[in-house]
Amino acid sequence: MKLSSYILLILFFSISGNGIDKDLKYLKQTPPSVVPEKFAPGIISTADEYEFGSVFNKEATEFFYGVAINGKEEIRYTKLVGNNWTTPKTIFVHERYGYNDPFLSNDENRLYFISVRALDGKGESKDYDIWYAERTPNGWSEPINAGPNINTVADEYYISFTNDGTMYFASSRADNNFDIYASPMEQNEFQKAKRLSEAINTPHYEADVFIDPNESYIIFCANRPEGLGRGDLYISFKNDDGTWTKSVNMGNTINTEGHELCPFVSKDGKYFFYTSNQDIYWVHTDILKTYR
Fold it and tell me: Which pLDDT band holds residue 106 (cuts at 50, 70, 90)?
């Protein structure tokens, strides 16, 4: 191979992301075992703030997460530049409205999140809706409401996508009780959302849903009588016939007497992130095999 061709090949892998040193990804943190560990303590998970939903991009070189400070919600961002991660900065904040629970679209050109923002961006706070902003050469666009097939006069929470673009989310539209719904994407439009089966939804609280992109499993937060704390994480697996197994509590390896919520699994399928008692934790996804 000629030297010029070799240099071009190196440049290609660097640009495509395949040349990124794996030790630089995930904020240079040492990967966890099947025992949960606090994620990036002192950098992301801090003592004086409440960290909520989080998401990495496919290459694990961009990280978005929600933070509450004295009850005010904002979205922060850090990225890998060269061999170092930038200092986390706030990218969505408002003097009146909060922004939380970020999640990237499959093409990573939209950042979805929840907010009590008024539809006109000026009025009084309303119920929680799902919004998104579009990535532009100059940053992110102004928030755009996800529309009436997703949002209602009730609260809509959290966001997760399958490979075909179906959005899974939670809503309190039925008798003011939070359940999990799915809305297929067809011709770039979300369709009318449908409530998931009783294997997932019960008369109790179910929200904060992560759907495996292949729809092989689903993880969500629930508050049920048999739970260990204020909110526990539950898991269900897809059967061969397309139905879901009865959801089960993920137990005291994950859940505590406090509140566990905001599940997310990295795009490489290796790491399971979630919030526990106001900090973000991560654990190797091998732990999920124990629940089958």
Answer: very high
Indicate the SS3 state at residue 154: coil
pLDDT at 33: 98
d(CA 272, CA 281): 8
Can you tell me whether residue 3 is helix, strand or coil?
helix
Average pLDDT on 27-36 reads: 98
For the domain 39-291, what is the CATH code?
Answer: 2.120.10.30
Query: How do residues 162-181 score in pLDDT, each as one tens digit?
Result: 999 999 999 999 988 999 99
Rounded Cα–Cα distance for residues 81 and 76 (Å)? 16
Q: Is the pLDDT of residue 221 over 90?
A: yes
Domain residues of the chain, as ranges?
A: 39-291
Residue 39 and residue 55: Cα distance in Å, rounded?
A: 12
Q: Which residues pair with 127 in a beta bridge?
A: none
Secondary element (H or E) of residue 113: strand 110-115
Distance CA 135, CA 111 (A): 8
Q: What is the rounded distance in angstroms from the CA atom of residue 146 to the CA atom of residue 158? A: 12
Which amino acid appears at position 129 of this protein?
A: D
